Amino acid sequence: MLTKKQTELVLHKFLQEDGLNSVLEMMLNAIFQELKQRAAETIDLIVSDGIAGLDQSIAQLFPCSAHQKCIVHLQRNLQAYVPREDKSELAQDIRELLSPENEIYTIDQALENTVQLKEKWQQKYAALAKHITKMNWYPYFTYLEFNPKIRRMIYSTNWIERFNKRGVLQSQLESF
């Protein structure tokens, strides 16, 4: 049996060596494998945050599935590069970049607008501009391939998280 200190050291080492990501990848692969075994041939849309390894699991097991990464997580990640006084301006720029209600807005236009976003902020925040340049933006704009009436629902994991939270709360209330 490990002592508390030994357990903390093992966990620290595990997390340092990207072990958590490896475990998540294995779990995701197992979940997707089970879906395949239950005769799922395709998944029309997967909405997720930035879970490591998810892109690879989807590509390997469900290559025709659309993958939408959460724009709320995107916004938080980008805002981490700027101080508090510029967060609201950056948030507004990101909202304009996303434009979910614009029925004629395309992925190509959105990708062009990421260049403008980078150019606007590169003078003041070089690290943000570099991050914007290095990002794979396609999974953040998948929602643009869908009907504008449902875009807000599928471009974020928030509704899924709220649904799960309500379910958990409901089950906890029922257990009393």
Descriptive notes:
- With 176 residues, the chain is mostly helical.
- It has one domain (9-166).
- The protein contains nine helices and two strands, in the order ααβαβαααααα.
- The protein has helices at 4-16, 19-37, 54-61, 71-79, 84-98, 107-122, 126-134, 151-154, 158-174; strands at residues 45-48, 66-69.
- Strands 1-2 form a two-stranded parallel sheet.
- Helix 3 (54-61) links the parallel strand 1 (45-48) and strand 2.
- Helix 2 (19-37) packs parallel to helix 3 (54-61) and helix 6 runs antiparallel to helix 7 (126-134).
- It is globular, with a radius of gyration of 19 Å.
- The two termini are 35 Å apart.
- The mean pLDDT is 80.
Q: In short, what is this structure?
A:
The chain has 176 residues and is mostly helical. The protein has one domain (9-166).
Given the helix and strand composition, which structural class is it?
A: mainly alpha
- How would you state the average pLDDT, rounded? 80
Strand order of the largest sheet: 1-2
Tally of helical runs: 9
Radius of gyration: 19 Å
The description of the largest β-sheet is: 2 strands, parallel
Q: Which descriptor suits the 3D outline? A: globular
Ends: how far apart?
A: 35 Å
Please give the number of β-strands.
2
Given as residue ranges, the uncertain stretches (5+ residues, pLDDT < 50) are none
SSE topology string: HHEHEHHHHHH
Q: Residue share in helices? A: 55-70%
Range of strand content: under 5%
Instruction: State the domain count.
Output: 1
